[in-house]
Amino acid sequence: MKPKNPIAKSKSAGKTDGIENSLLRCEVNANAGEWIKPSSCEKFHITAEAELPRISFEFKTNSPPPYILDWDMRWIVQSCQQKKNKPRYKPKHAKTYSAHGTQTLTEKTWTANLNNQVLGGELTVNIKAGDDKFRRTVFILGTEPGKVLVSTYLDSTPDSDIAGLVKKIFKQETNFTHYYSDEMPLVSFDNGYGLGQATNPAPAYEQVWNWKKHADSIISIVKSKRTLAKKYLSQDHRAYTKEQLDLETLAYYNGANYHYHMWDEKTQNWIVNTNVVCEPNESNKGWDTVKDENKDKTLDELRKNKKSKPIYTGRCYAEHIKNAQ
Questions:
Q1: Are 113 and 166 members of one domain?
Q2: Is 185 within a domain?
Q3: What is the pTM of this model?
Q4: Per-residue pLDDT tens for 4-48?
């Protein structure tokens, strides 16, 4: 069966979330039954503290309980441009997040509880009361937490070293921004989500919309990358500094296809990987100077040489963050 597309195609879809070419469109004539609240296509906002808004549903019917309620939450992933207030576009790998639930009511009211999760997008509620059927759709959007609130949350975590690295990542990736100007999560062209532009593993629905759950997931990822960095730097019982560990961890976070450090047999020390020349104007772009077409070339020559294909690597990502501090 072809999945239902939550973006209405009907010309009678009279309400949206207010953003031109928005992902969220509510088809007014798709609502059914007599409702007291909420209004059709009404907007609600997740709080800056990442709490689900209070959304009260109330309907009119002469049928006695029980009433069977089904809710469906959907959000189609589309990428957003760096400039604000621009239309989104289809990413490399299109994805739709969804969640649903069923509940039996004894009253003609229901306060939205989405399996105790903080989710955003298009919420559709269907209720069956005897022969009466009710349907209502509303929007749930986000509220930007801001740098202070995010930093305070990170500072509350037990590991201050990890929190410090996550702050650097959030600063580098999105300047502590979780939502786009349409009040939905940031999504890059390659499906990087939110504050930390999480890509792999792909975040769960709540980790996309709930910035605290998102931050928790990034903390977990950085911890795992730190473990890999320690293993790499401590091979053969070699010594390393905290700064070297931090930089190697950042390189792993962005994909350590090229390490930040390499072992120098002559000095018996870890040194900066000289096999990569980084583009200072882009966060993770550089050139592998081991390749014949890149050998003995200056940065300007590498930029101009059509045969010199750039690479995207954690080595340059870590250097960019280091130089930005």
A1: no
A2: no
A3: 0.88
A4: 333 322 233 445 544 444 556 676 667 899 999 999 999 999 999
